[in-house]
Amino acid sequence: MMGDVDITADDRVFGHVRLRGGRYDQPGLPVTTAVELARYQRLVSAVAYHLYMRAHPKRKRAPRGFSESLDLRLVDVQPGSVVPVLSRAQATGQPTLIGEDWHDQARVLINEALANINRDQRLPAGFPVEALKEFASFGRSLQNDEAIEFSGNGAEVAAFTPQTRRRIQSLANLDEIEVELLVQGQVIGLHSDPQRLDVLLADASRRKLVGEYTDPAMWDTLREFLGFADRAPLSALSIVARQGLDGEIRAIVDVLGIEAALPTEWADRIAELAALRKGWLDPDSDDPSRETLDVTEEFLLACVDEGLPRPSIYPSADGGVQLEWRTELVAVEVDILNSGTASAYAFDVVGNDDHELVLTEIDTDALLNFAAEHLNG
Amino acid sequence: MADGDNLEQLTDAGELLWRNVHPSWVESDGKISSQAFRPTSKDEGRLSTARSSLVTAAAHYDEHTGTRGLASSGVWAVSVGEAMALSLPSVYDEHSATIPQPAPKGHTSIDFTGLSGGAARKAGGALRDHAEGRGKQHP
């Protein structure tokens, strides 16, 4: 125990690393190894960052402190070639990252990537190509007869050798590579001959992607997502994509699967609202517009990411959508209107600590922050 | 209280006021939108209900969905006293020139005109909570 940081606890050990061959078969740890371990930490951080950002497409950046939150320490060097023991230091009171252990997911994915690259020179599904440059810089000091082996609990050993590094560098030097990805968007065009589709991405770029699918049976599935009531629902597509090393998807090479991006109960309710027509409430009442439903879906997806419960979802008498949450302490309402405006209210159930947010332009981040702040207390 | 314009402010706190709720404002789990219990922007601050001393919930539902051909998921109710507690007067105005004629039988307006937008929204939510707690009255 060092101060209030316990870096020897077993639950902080960060995978297993073994250095073999060449200099590592001699007694002692070459000091250049420290540089490689620092590069390894940067690689894990980069992969974790891109995994997080991909899982939270509405976010413009990772939570504060994300990059600094991985602080690996060399706490021991065990015999048997050279076995540096890496441990995560986490000071008492340091905020933990919401939800999942992104760094451990990154560690596992890096191990998987090494195994795949050694086997068939391909990256595994989900590996963020944006981290390839960081990956290619790892192991620079490794000599031809040396290897770094990574393993987890019971997982196969993934070896990093100079040959592995050359393969990673050749991938990193390509202008674009084929990767398996999960993207969110709407299927806005579908053709059976040739087998092509158009997808409108739900990220900030709102880009239209053209692509292909190879399995003829996929046409029926894709058609279900082409749209109900003339509007395509927000979908999560598992695709093989040509992706530039800047992370931009250039084209869809194949579609492996598709499902609703929102949980079924949420998506079904949006479908009900999409089926409304003008005059649904009284002769002059407007149904929720396609644009309003698109923004509402994006907002709801952000609510899912934030861990908020499903709100009640209603058409608005003013033309648009009204979302309502109720707890024992607070009632929160969010209006997203066809006029391109939005508002949010938090009503104190037992007192008068009420709050209101009025937006002349729809800002889903502001609405999410408002809802989360008041629902999470 | 009655006046020359055929308006009568109701004072019997226990009297129920019926309210038809549009099907789109009832979620699959039965939760009702607060919108169902506050006036829309076209209602000029008055929420339409019908007083239980003059019409049954079933008759109010039948008139709404049959004679008037409007959609309803059913009839819920709030009391005059619950509205009063929110500073909302309930005014029987079936024969008043202030509302389009012929009005639904027993037509009574819960008057939101004294409330700002946010306060009206909160009051609507409170009325909705009372109505949900009482349960659907018909069918």
Range of strand content of chain A = 25-35%
Residue ranges of chain B: pLDDT <50 for 5 or more in a row? none
| Secondary-structure-derived class of chain A | alpha+beta
Strand percentage of chain B: 15-25%
Overall shape of chain B: globular
Secondary-structure-derived class of chain B: alpha+beta
Largest sheet of chain A: 5 strands, antiparallel
Task: State the helicity of chain A in percent bands.
Answer: 25-40%
Q: Please, could you describe this protein's structure?
A:
The complex is a heterodimer of chains A (377) and B (139). Chain A is of the alpha+beta class. Helices cover 28% and strands 29% of the residues of chain A. Chain A contains eight helices and 15 strands. In chain A, strands 8-7-6-9-10 form a five-stranded antiparallel beta sheet. In chain A, helix 1 packs across helix 2 and helix 6 packs antiparallel against helix 7. The longest helix of chain A has 24 residues. Chain A is flat, with a radius of gyration of 25 Å. The N terminus of chain A is likely disordered. Chain B is α+β, with helices and mostly antiparallel strands and 139 residues long. The longest helix of chain B has 18 residues. In chain B, 25% of the residues lie in helices and 20% in strands. In chain B, strands 1-5-6-3-2-4 form a six-stranded antiparallel beta sheet. The interface between A and B is medium-sized, with 25 and 17 residues.
